[in-house]
Amino acid sequence: MKKLLFLQLDDAHFVAETKLFLKRYAHELVQYELFLFAPNSKSKISGPWKEISKEEISKNNFEMILNLSLSEESWEFAKDLQSPFFVGTRSTEMNTLQVIGHWSTYLLQLKGGASFLPFHLQDIYKNIVGCKSLSLAKEKTWKYEVIYWQCPHFINENVFLILVAQLKERYKNWEFIPGTPQENKPGFYIGPANHEVSLWHEQNHRLLILKNNFEGLHFAPAGDNHWLVNPHQADPDFTELYKLMIQFCEQIPCKEINTWEVYQTTQENLFGTSLKPLTMTNSNFPFYQFHVVIWQYVLNLFDVNLEIAGINKDQETTLKFYEEVLTKINRFLDLIVSNLADQLEHFDETNFDIKKFQAAITEIQDFETTTSKIAENHPLLRPFLDYYQIVRGQSEFSGLKDQLQDQMLILSEQSGVLKALLELISMTIQNYSSKIEKTSQGRERHGNDREF
To answer: How far apart are CA 374 and CA 411, in angstroms?
Structure first.
């Protein structure tokens, strides 16, 4: 039987998600013997793989090695491993970085510091490995009269204890357990997440995860019908949080919540876990949805049927700002692509003009420098800029014409992606403006009727 080796040298959270991914999709890998090297493993999650030591790796011959890690340590470690096939990121003998696979490139750009995580880690790993089966949502009702609770760091402990005391008064016959969920006693959990948050879902707990701000699917369970909750303003109403807790435990619709944001995990879409807003949303939430739509098409050529949520005035202001930034970037890109196309059209190897070639390369380098600065100051655009910067660095062509063609194709693809993002932003702003205009006209007609 052929052997697959998975490398996971990141911290305990990434190790836990890797193990749960392997457990979830092991049925697609039954033709292989699975091995996992995870020196930072802390969870007791077991499955159809063997955890292997550093010394044991050299004693085995692996058909394929897959590096699911983000750590630079893993790049150096993977460099010295021999295998016919490799997927992921590793250093080369020339001290450059080799990234194999579109989703591996996407994972690598996360090191740049994304504002939120649009995809769950398990879904990213699934795409890196190439697993195709779908994990569809299942209707579920929790009947357990057990509440686990922990106070998150951003909430005053005395305030949180008062909320727990009120819950105890309401649910007098329920069991309340401070701390994280237990494996053999399913129940409701209210508190912050830790590295085993997805394991709690696997153990049949329902989770209300309290966060300080919107982070997308970072530290979120890979399952259906959990709630991620964060403040919508600097001084949220804690009586609303108590109301939220009741709605969560009694499994009734979330309503009449104005100072907290509530997002429900769902698997309604075929690509994996996503977020559905149940209340007012964060200023970054429209971009979360834009990222999901565009990245699924770029990386999987898959059109996502995702209903874009309506926006508010603050979100419109953010979108208009990024609309202006994207318009300028696209103009810059169009100019570079046009110049490269002209270079290629008049390329003559017998009478090659090295100055024009150097000028074209300088333009690309200037674009890299400019977009690096933009990425630092505009985190919502950063993934789209960092991803293509990594892709451009992977070019292996040696011929001058081939280099120009490769760079032009990559820049053209990036231009198309950024224009698609710009179109989504502009359409969302336009829909919001039309809605405001109709509301205003309706008020005017209502006022005229009253006057009449």
So the answer is: 17
